[in-house]
Amino acid sequence: MSNHPAIAVVGAGHAGVEAAFALAKGGAKVTLFSDEPCLPYFRPRLIAVAFGQAEPDAIAIKPRKAYAEAGIDLRHEAATALDPAARTVNGRAYDALVLATGSHAFVPPFQGHAARVHTLWTLADALRLRGLHAPGKALTVIGGGVLGIEAALRAAEAGLRATIVEAAAGLASGSLGAAEATLRRAIEAKGIAIHTGSGVAEILPDGIRLADGRTIADDLLLCSAGARPNGIPGHEDYLVTRGDLNVAPIPAVYAAGDVALTPRAENAQPYTPPRSVRRAQLMGRLLGESLLSAHAGHGTLRWSEPILPQLMKVGDVELHTLGDLRSADLQERRVDDGADPRVWKSVLWRGDLPVGLRWVGTRAGFADWEKRVCESLAEPSP
């Protein structure tokens, strides 16, 4: 590489933007490829844009002038000709590539009138929904994860009659245990109906039919069934990376964000890490710094998966979780007095170690326990 390496960052989500700015700060010549015509944006705020609680300009990660001032060449140009092995993007060669291509919304192969199904993963999706909903209309949200719950809550704020449908037995990927009842009450208090334990059998012209035979009428249908990483030509759907985030076995090609699938340990099977803005930001920043360190002859920096909370807050409906929530050997103990039916605070223990948190209706006290849980999970298991 030259003294000022030319690096292409493919993908302008949170990981790509953080990597681009870290690289530019260190003197690299950075080209940032975005396949959208707008400024890179804060993805979780798309739900608020869709239902009129935020404006598109307000969710930009950085203003346009920030890219110019940093010397980043932000190109609204899809990387349609990408050759990782040759390190070329759209016919131009670079000293290194950062692949931060993110994810796309997953839509199951529904039977029936599948064209009715909307997703909410891009700004274009958000603006499309924003132009269709109106107070009094009925919205069905397929998926009872955190994003699906938030979409239903924000739709209710906008005056829609919202319903959540979740095929699994519980909301939030079944991570809440007994705390789920508290969350359900808070959601239902907003006028939102919840149907769990039965998936969608068919999309009807004016609603859906569940696998158990029930039908739900609606005007709009939103699928919030998760996402899948955007694959890279010539590679698996997921980019399996080492701790230095190099895409093995290709030199000078690195991955960050949702496409970076890292092993827990040497020779371990890859796993799908939880998607979060914070993880993408941390990984993108470290990757940028790592590339600069390697270029200066100091070696690459190592990535290790952080322990990050999952959180949601819409008005007075809150959910905060952290750590191990599903292992069979855990004991759950509440740390609130149970006097307020809108609040649940519990700690999950493995022996004498706190390893998980379930907080509903408040964040009070969460930060103190978060520190303890992260310390416990960082220690080797006995």
Provide a descriptive summary of the structure in words.
This protein is an alpha/beta fold. It has three domains: 6-104 and 227-295, 3-Layer(bba) Sandwich (FAD/NAD(P)-binding domain), CATH 3.50.50.60; 107-223, 3-Layer(bba) Sandwich (FAD/NAD(P)-binding domain), CATH 3.50.50.60; 310-378, 2-Layer Sandwich (Enolase-like, domain 1), CATH 3.30.390. Helix 1 (14-25) packs parallel to helix 7 (277-295). Strand 5 and strand 6 (92-93) form a beta hairpin. The model is unreliable at 265-271 (pLDDT under 50). Helices cover 22% and strands 27% of the residues. It has eight helices and 25 strands. It has a five-stranded parallel beta sheet with strand order 3-2-1-7-19, covered by helices on one side. A five-stranded parallel beta sheet has the order 9-16-10-11-12, covered by helices on one side.
